[in-house]
């Protein structure tokens, strides 16, 4: 007793400590990938800044609506931002300008179109006018070609053929970066190109800057269909700091441009420049989002310069003063209003993906700008997620925020003040670790596995390769010695969650438990923590914005996200060569290879691994651990366990041992249970098929003895059966067996049962009514038997309707003097809902299948009360029916078998009984049956494994015990199944369970075919097997409790509905 209390206390203590640690995140090593940068804000306004708004007068208070066909979007190939903006705003533009054409210094034109973008534009009826540009550093060479008439003509014709061949609407010439010396050559090129294109129904647009020395606006306007002016550049990376496009400058540029209004397209930007004061050569181009991110991370205030109508921000970086001037939604609004006042044909968004989302609202409602200006107060990020870099160490550098600002307008409707309250920030995914030359890291997910991981470790040891293993906690708990070996042999270990959970779907609490349980386990096994983590189901952080909260959460816990861009796809590959080829063909994609060392058959992975290692080295690659790719060491990510956490290790050691025992027990308990279930089904199938062959052979010969027609007494015990008794008697009177009497024994009914029998059958010569005081069903049957005149007694429940040939078929078995009882085939006569349909399936696939099989072995354990025939002499010898159990039919059947009599089954003696139509009635009925059968099992326990009656002792009785034990443990088995899937050998558990379901289904299908009934109810067999058995489990445990308490149970009978019916066509006649 004391030992038990100590053991129990120890287990509770271990569980409590482990549960506590699930919510106590250990302190992990702080690994930083960013170089330390000292940035401090300079939030004072510029001293030389005027407080007066620039004097910009507008001529009109109303403006035209820009036609959608004159809204241009400049798309940048392979830029995530650009694609995202295009897909979102394709409905708001009329012309798409993708940067697909490049003219090289040798005069060739390279096209890099994207089929998906092309299809998107055509689907939405957006004109495609790809951009033709010059690569950086090749402007002089290209323009020299353009200056030559012959090469220019060749270039024009080549461009025409490519545009025409691709069925584009035209082309957009953007030679940004040419010098003033190229002015005439550029004009000549546009002139000649426009002549060819115009003649063939194609359009030409020319992009120009506001540098009048480089572009001949007047001449270009004569040739090009549209002139797209980049309406920014007042200050840029080659000038001193200043506004990018002030209001005054914008108005002046428009007034000075000799471009007709019907051809003028203004291109508005959303970018800026970061000037290092005193070091102008270090000026950097920034997108608006770059500015927002920098300001948000460093508490920098964005200021508004009223004199220019442009925003700016100031800060110090490593002691150097910086100033940023940039364009945003407010400047776009002002420029758009000024341009509309001047008169323009359309607007171009200079770089899709970097504009404020409000841009498109303004362009759609250019005739109502004053009504939409307030919409600028709320700013959404263009994309919810921004990827920086394309490497495999992934860091979320900011959390997403919607932006908020306050704006003020002047008398002209122009914005005169802008104050940012909160910056619009998407999630930023910064990716590190790819700039390491020809270095490759090998990683494995989902292990460890007892079969495959040691073989992989052997190969790595032989080849002298250190790798990364991202282990699943439940696997590490089962194989701690393998994890310990990983660390001992120099490999890096990371977490892959405890159960291979999808963190995108996990709650924060679940994520914490998944990571903490695995972390503490790794610490207990290796003595070191790990901050390496790879989430299951992703290798490159391919998450949506709603799923990124958990990514930020595990990063805040101290974990480093390690991806993999070289995916071997070994989990789906069928051969070694396939794995090798996939890896070697993807080496340009990244620096970390992903394999799996568990979760399936990894034989091909093991065969491929040494081949891949050899080929990588042959191609000049150095194989390193992943930490080296990030410029770190293993000790940076796996530090020794601190003294403060050592106290938990002993508890995790004990918990791990308990876990291994539980998982092993669950696995084998489930496997053995399923295996026994399958063997039982196959056993029943074999002997039922044998019975069917024997039965068919006998029925071909007709009756055993045509002259055998003994007098039969049909006994119907009745208690409160007024709704069903009439139908039962009438069905018996329709029997084709004439030599019978019907004895109705009323056991003190309190309803009108007696009145019904008297009213309808008082004058019938074959029907007798016996009344007695209530004494229970066995006493009613015995009363009928004592007054019965027949040598064969057939007992029917009062709710049973029988087929016309049922009695004849039952009686025929008694030509064999060894036969003491015959069981009929009980069927459900009121299949009206899911509950009765499931009972219908149970009767056919369970009880009746058993009877067919057990007939062959003389071990039928119950002749049912609904329809059973008895030799009077045999039951008289054993004292008729006893009332010391609630299952008198089972009790007397077992007594006959133990006396050496034969009990058989007549499959075509069909009786249709009424089944409970709701759960309450079902449980009430099954409780009585179960309680009674338990009584019988205990009463006849001496028959279990008794060699005197081998069939009963070694088949019938063990089957009864097996059924009730298995049904009673069904909820536990289902729980073990779920636990086995989560923490055990998933493939084995699932395989055995599916095997059982498949065998069960085909046995059920065979049984239904045997009974010649519709198989449609089997469509829900899988659901029935799971749900229906829970009711059985409840009744079994209720019976056990009642038995232990010594509670007595009476008739506890079902309230009749009278819905049981014979089938319209009695196929039994053909039997």
From TrEMBL:
What range(s) does the GH18 domain occupy? Answer: 69-373
Tell me which domain of life the UniProt entry assigns to the organism this sequence originates from.
Answer: Bacteria
Q: Entry's SMART domains?
A: Glyco_18
Q: Which GO terms describe its biological process?
A: carbohydrate metabolic process
Q: Which Gene3D superfamilies match?
A: 3.10.50.10, Glycosidases (3.20.20.80), Glycoside hydrolase/deacetylase (3.20.20.370), Spore Coat Polysaccharide Biosynthesis Protein SpsA, Chain A (3.90.550.10)
Please give the Pfam families that the UniProt record associates with this protein: Glyco_hydro_18, Glycos_transf_2, Polysacc_deac_1
Q: Which UniProt keywords apply?
A: Glycosyltransferase, Membrane, Transferase, Transmembrane, Transmembrane helix
InterPro entries associated with the record = Chitinase_II/V-like_cat (IPR011583), Chitinase_insertion_sf (IPR029070), GH (IPR017853), Glyco_hydro/deAcase_b/a-brl (IPR011330), Glyco_hydro18_cat (IPR001223), Glyco_trans_2-like (IPR001173), NODB_dom (IPR002509), Nucleotide-diphossugar_trans (IPR029044)
Kindly list the residue ranges recorded as spanning the membrane.
658-687, 964-984, 990-1010, 1031-1051
The NodB homology domain covers: 438-624
For this chain, one GO molecular function annotation is: hydrolase activity, acting on carbon-nitrogen (but not peptide) bonds
**What family does the database annotate?**
Belongs to the glycosyltransferase 2 family.
Q: What is this protein called?
A: Glycosyl transferase
Q: What is the lineage of its organism?
A: Bacteria, Bacillati, Bacillota, Bacilli, Bacillales
């Amino acid at each position: 007793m004391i030992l038990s209390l100590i053991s129990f206390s120890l287990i509770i203590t271990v569980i409590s400590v482990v549960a506590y640690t699930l919510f106590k995140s250990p302190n992990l090593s702080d690994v930083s990938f960013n170089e330390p940068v000292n940035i401090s804000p300079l939030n004072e306004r510029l001293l030389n800044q005027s407080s007066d708004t620039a004097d910009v007068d507008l001529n009109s208070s109303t403006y035209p609506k820009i036609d959608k066909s004159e809204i241009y979007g400049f798309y940048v190939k392979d830029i995530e931002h650009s694609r995202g903006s295009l897909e979102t705003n394709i409905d708001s533009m009329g012309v798409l300008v993708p940067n697909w054409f490049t003219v090289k210094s040798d005069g060739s034109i390279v096209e890099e179109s994207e089929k998906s973008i092309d299809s998107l534009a055509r689907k939405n009826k957006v004109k495609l006018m790809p951009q033709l540009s010059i690569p950086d550093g090749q402007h002089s060479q290209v323009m020299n070609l353009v200056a030559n008439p012959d090469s220019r003509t060749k270039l024009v014709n080549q461009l025409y053929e490519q545009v025409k061949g691709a069925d584009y609407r035209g082309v957009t010439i953007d030679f940004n970066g040419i010098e003033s010396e190229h002015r005439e050559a550029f004009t000549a090129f546009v002139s000649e190109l426009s002549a060819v294109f115009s003649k063939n129904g194609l359009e030409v647009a020319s992009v120009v800057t506001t540098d009048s020395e480089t572009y001949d606006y007047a001449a270009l306007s004569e040739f090009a269909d549209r002139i797209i002016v980049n309406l920014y550049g007042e200050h840029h990376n080659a000038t001193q700091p200043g506004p990018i496009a002030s209001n005054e400058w914008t108005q002046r540029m428009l007034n000075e441009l000799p471009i007709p209004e019907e051809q003028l397209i203004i291109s508005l930007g959303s970018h800026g420049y970061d000037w290092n004061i005193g070091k102008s050569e270090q000026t950097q181009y920034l997108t608006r989002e770059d500015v927002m991110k920098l300001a948000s991370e460093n508490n920098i205030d964005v200021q508004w310069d009223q004199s220019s109508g442009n925003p700016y921000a100031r800060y110090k970086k490593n002691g150097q003063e910086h100033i940023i001037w940039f364009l945003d939604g407010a400047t776009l609004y002002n420029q758009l209003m000024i341009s509309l006042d001047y008169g323009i044909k359309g607007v171009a968004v200079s770089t899709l993906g970097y504009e404020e989302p409000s841009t498109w609202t303004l362009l759609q409602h250019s005739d109502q700008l004053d009504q939409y200006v307030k919409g600028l107060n709320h700013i959404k990020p263009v994309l919810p997620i921004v990827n920086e870099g394309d490497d495999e160490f992934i860091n979320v550098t900011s959390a997403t925020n919607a932006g908020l600002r306050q704006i003020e307008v002047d008398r002209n409707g122009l914005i005169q003040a802008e104050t940012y309250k909160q910056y619009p920030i998407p999630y930023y995914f910064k990716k590190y670790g790819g700039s390491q030359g020809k270095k490759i890291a090998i990683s494995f997910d989902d292990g460890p596995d007892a079969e495959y991981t040691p073989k992989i470790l052997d190969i790595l040891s032989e080849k002298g390769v250190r790798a990364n293993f991202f282990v699943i906690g439940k696997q590490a708990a089962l194989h701690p010695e393998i994890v310990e070996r990983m660390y001992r042999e120099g490999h890096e270990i990371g977490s892959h969650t405890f159960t291979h959970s999808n963190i995108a779907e996990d709650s924060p609490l679940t994520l914490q438990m998944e990571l903490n349980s695995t972390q503490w386990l790794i610490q207990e096994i290796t003595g070191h923590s790990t901050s390496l983590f790879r989430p299951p189901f992703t290798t490159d952080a391919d998450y949506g914005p709603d799923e990124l909260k958990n990514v930020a959460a595990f990063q805040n816990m101290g974990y480093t996200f390690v991806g993999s861009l070289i995916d071997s796809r070994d989990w789906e590959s069928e051969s070694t060569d396939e794995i090798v080829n996939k890896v070697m063909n993807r080496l340009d994609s990244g620096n970390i290879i992903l394999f799996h060392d568990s979760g399936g058959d990894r034989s091909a992975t093991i065969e491929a691994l040494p081949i891949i290692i050899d080929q990588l080295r042959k191609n000049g690659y150095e194989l390193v651990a992943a930490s080296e790719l990030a410029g770190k060491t293993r000790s940076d990510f796996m530090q020794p366990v601190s003294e403060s956490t050592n106290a938990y290790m002993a508890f995790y050691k004990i918990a791990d041992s308990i876990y291994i025992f539980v998982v092993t027990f669950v696995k084998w308990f489930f496997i053995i249970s399923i295996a026994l279930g399958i063997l039982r089904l196959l056993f029943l199938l074999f002997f039922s098929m044998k019975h069917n062959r024997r039965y068919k052979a006998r029925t071909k010969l007709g009756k055993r003895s045509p002259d055998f027609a003994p007098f039969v007494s049909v006994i119907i015990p009745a208690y409160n059966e007024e709704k069903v008794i009439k139908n039962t008697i009438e069905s018996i009177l329709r029997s084709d067996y004439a030599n019978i009497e019907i004895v109705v024994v009323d056991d003190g009914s309190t309803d009108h049962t007696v009145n019904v029998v008297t009213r309808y059958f008082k004058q019938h010569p074959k029907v007798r009514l016996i009344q007695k005081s209530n004494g229970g069903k066995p006493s009613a049957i015995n009363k009928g038997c004592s007054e019965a005149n027949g040598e064969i007694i057939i007992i029917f429940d009062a709710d049973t309707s029988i087929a016309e040939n049922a009695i004849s078929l039952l009686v025929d078995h008694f030509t064999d003097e060894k036969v003491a009882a015959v069981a009929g085939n009980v069927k459900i006569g009121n299949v009206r809902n899911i509950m009765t349909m499931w009972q219908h399936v149970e009767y056919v696939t369970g009880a009746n299948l058993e009877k067919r099989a057990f007939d062959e072995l003389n071990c039928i354990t119950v002749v049912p009360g609904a329809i059973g025939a008895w030799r009077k002499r045999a039951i008289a010898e054993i004292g008729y029916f006893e009332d010391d159990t609630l299952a008198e039919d089972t009790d007397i059947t077992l007594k006959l078998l133990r006396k050496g009599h034969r009990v058989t089954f007549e499959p075509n003696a069909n009786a249709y009984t009424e089944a409970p139509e709701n759960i309450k009635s079902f449980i009430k009925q099954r409780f009585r049956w179960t309680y009674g059968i338990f009584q019988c099992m205990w009463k006849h326990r001496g028959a279990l494994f008794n060699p005197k009656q081998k069939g009963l002792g070694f088949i019938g009785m063990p089957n009864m015990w097996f059924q009730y034990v298995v049904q009673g443990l069904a909820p536990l088995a289902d729980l073990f199944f779920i636990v086995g899937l989560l923490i055990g050998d998933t493939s084995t558990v699932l395989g055995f369970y599916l095997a059982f379901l498949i065998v069960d289904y085909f046995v059920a299908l065979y049984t239904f075919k045997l009974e010649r009934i519709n198989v449609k109810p089997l469509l829900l067999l899988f659901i029935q097997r799971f749900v229906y058995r829970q009711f059985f489990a409840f009744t079994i445990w209720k019976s056990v409790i009642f038995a232990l308490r010594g509670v007595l149970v009476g008739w506890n009978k079902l309230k009749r509905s009278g819905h049981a019916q014979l089938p319209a066509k009695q196929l039994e006649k053909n039997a």
